[in-house]
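This part of the workshop introduces the protein records we will be handling. A record pairs a protein's sequence with a compact description of its fold. As an example, a complete record with its sequence and its structure tokens follows.

_____
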Amino acid sequence: MVTAAVIIGGFSQTVPGDFTREPGMPILLSVHGTVFTLWVLLFVAQPTFIARGSIALHRRVGWAGAVLATAMLVMGVAATLFAIRYNFVPGFFPRPIFLVMNLIGISVFAGLVGAGIALRKRAEWHKRLMLCATISILGPGLGRLLPMGSFGAAAPLVMFGAIALFAFAGPVVDVIVRRRVHPAYYWGVSTILLSMMMVGPIAFSPLGTALLTVVGRAA
């Protein structure tokens, strides 16, 4: 719930202005935001169904969630490429970092969701992997909630640190409640941390430079 609150709280800082300013937000980014919002609503609704004992409803909605996760992957990549090409990148992120961070982040999200779906019959694995998947895409919400512009060149590190705190919260709760960390968190949290450590080296490598050149060629 805290994860969802961060995303909702972050977007509430900018969404009204995004839709009322002139010129208006590009349709692609509006669709991306809508799909993102639907995922957050689903993320909140699914545990609620379980708590109420509506297992059958949880499963039916879960298949819609699989379709939505696919849409998240497609729109996440499309929105990132659009932002690079048409200069919608937040000023506190270097363009190579923004590009690689988003592409890796949405790939991690898709991978963790896929693992969660594959392990849907193992509830303890499923719910933790889905939580890790949602944490992996906290960046846009945190970027709007935190005063990122005041961090200067350290903004990407602040972002990564904040995401890492959320990633470690799950294992900490496990230790408190279960006296041990569930293996799902070893996989999920490790994937998130490894992906964040990869961003800088890739972004400023020849591969990252070439990718940015190709994507931004029409800018």
The CA atoms of residues 167 and 189 lie 6 Å apart. Residues 2-218 form one domain. The chain is about 80% helix and 0% strand. The first helix runs from residue 2 to 12.
